[in-house]
Amino acid sequence: MTTTQQGRQKRGVTACLDRYEPRPEHADLATLAAEAEVLAAQLRPGLEPPPARWRSLRRQGRGIGTLLRNHAANLRLARQGRDDLWPLYFIWSVHRACNFRCTYCDDHRGQKHPDLPADALLSTDQAVRLLRVMRTRTPSVLMSGGEPTLRGDLPQLTRAARDLNYFPIIMNTNGSRHHQLLRRPEWCGWLADIDHLVVSLDALDLAVLERMWGHGGAADVLRNILMLRELAGPMQFKLMISTVIQPGAVHHARDVLNFCNDLGLCFCPMPVNIGPTIDTALFDDPQYAGLVELILERKRQGYLIAGSERLNRRMLQAEPLVCRNTLKPHVDYDGHLIWPCKGTVDVEPVRINALDFPDLEALFAHAGGLVDPNGFQDRCGAHCNWSQNYTTDAYAHGLENPGSIFREVLNFLRVV
């Protein structure tokens, strides 16, 4: 971040707005920002402070140690022409339920989260055991849903992840409940356990958001984002904004990009999918190509954009990717690993109870005997365009181009 950007981040919200141009139909940011400042001031005394610096460094070192161990093994596997690589992180859908009904969102297989049964939800003890199993060869965890904050024991799970030395711990949420949850004693340590908090924001027009999300709390989400921005520094987490770019709504995504750039927030662009594949109507939207170029230019200028320039260019333009699905195993709400990939089209994925295994090596060995992950991309048929697939593409490229992986790591460290 440049010195100018750092200075802006310390000033009030409305004083920071250079690129973002408010319109009459947009949210009243001045009012929401004032309310957010009051809310943050009320909440902060009751929040558990983040761990001491030496404790955080020890956890980060152990997580990075697992990453380096996996990378050394992956270099050997790649030289052998194998695709069964050890993970960079695992994706955990901690809850199927969701209080939103977003027009663009599904479970990667065409089903809406609110329509899915969730009667086999792991108990707290089972969920902690799952974290132990996956941690044996996984450095990082991305907790998502549905909406993960609908799990009342989520603070216990993030604390367990911290105690197991996961790094980074990433939480993906719709941001609608934080003003309520953070008042509760059992949630007072939650922010202290998270490294990245990713909140969805697809526009700054509240009426548009409520139509997109099927939920009436758009003002709460935006206020919570501004409140979390106030808390991010003292609580030592990184606030990231995920924006789904949709045909006919590209200008809304541009507004969010400008808003994030002005406030020093990390912007995560996500082109909308139909099933696993990008909605090709985006390429017919006359504003889309300009937005892509603007995102890439802002990245080159040093603004906080998640992912490298290469990763964003390939994802936003839906370039063919190298998918190595074992780098990002997906575990469902009931503790079942979805193998080899949740989004596969031509091969039916198998579901394996991770709690039946003592460690990830045993789990992967069993799973590989059911469906061979080697050469799976050629059999999958999905042509996915999710950001997590482009992280595997970046990593696979880096295995053959060490300079590329070095740049990816530097970019990651800059964002974290």
Element-level helix/strand string: HHHHEHEHEHEHHEHEEEHHEEEHHHH
CATH superfamily: Aldolase class I
Structural class of the helix and strand makeup? alpha/beta
Question: How many beta strands in the DSSP annotation?
Answer: 11
Mean pLDDT: 92
CATH class: Alpha Beta
Radius of gyration: 20 Å
Shape from CA axes?
globular
Low-confidence stretches at least 5 residues in length (pLDDT < 50)? 1-10
CATH architecture: Alpha-Beta Barrel
Q: Share of helix among residues?
A: 40-55%
Question: How many separate helices?
Answer: 16
Q: What is the CA-CA span between the terminal residues? A: 12 Å
Briefly say what this structure is.
The chain is of the alpha/beta class and 416 residues long.
Word description of this protein:
The structure is a single chain. This protein is of the alpha/beta class. The chain has one domain: Aldolase class I (TIM Barrel, Alpha-Beta Barrel), CATH 3.20.20. It is 45% helix and 11% strand. It contains 16 helices and eleven strands. The protein has helices at residues 3-10, 13-16, 29-43, 53-79, 124-135, 154-163, 178-181, 206-213, 218-235, 250-263, 288-301, 309-316, 360-370, 376-380, 387-400, 402-415, and strands spanning 90-93, 141-144, 169-173, 196-200, 238-245, 266-271, 273-274, 277-278, 330-331, 336-339, 350-353. It has a nine-stranded mixed beta sheet with strand order 6-5-4-3-2-1-9-10-11. Strands 7-8 form a two-stranded antiparallel ribbon. Helix 15 (387-400) crosses helix 16. The radius of gyration is 20 Å and the shape is globular. The protein starts with a helix and ends with a helix. Mean pLDDT is 92; it is low at 1-10.
